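Subject: for your reference before the review

Hello V.,

The reviewers asked for a structural picture of the protein, and I figured it would be easier to keep everything in one thread rather than splitting it across files. Below is the amino acid sequence we used in the manuscript, unchanged from the supplementary table.
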Amino acid sequence: MIPLPTGTEPVRQFAEVLVMKIAIPVCGNRVSTVFDAADELLMIDNTPGVSPEPSRAFWRENTLIGRTTQIRELGIQVLICGALSGAVARMLEAAGVQVIPFIRGTVDEVFDAFCNGKLKGSHFFLPGCVPCEGQGPQRRRWRGSGRTGGEEKP
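And here is what came back from the structure prediction:
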């Protein structure tokens, strides 16, 4: 099986052997901050030697299960998105979709960064999400209740 890029290495090295269908849930021309709140899905076929032509799909259903089903049916291989629940991420990954979560920015800058292996720049991560070496961006977790008195988990 050919590994998919994680957004931290250039897509060009995969382009000769792999056609990827990338999707970005959007609100206007920006990555939707929360997967659940996306107006529509921007899809880009990254076919080698062809200028990527984006297309848009409106959600058929507003449920998270309906959205994950639609992504699977559209043949999406990589989903670049803002925040989403762990359960949704696991459903998508079980369906063979690589999820790159907690990303923000305009569609053009995020797609360009993904293609050039520069999506790991901290300005692309949602506030409160930090990259962990080898694990991609993750949310900070806190012990205790509320903001005061809690300790950051290692």
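For the response letter, the relevant points are probably these. Residues 98 and 118 are 17 Å apart (CA to CA). The chain has one domain: 12-127.

Happy to draft the paragraph if you're swamped.

O.
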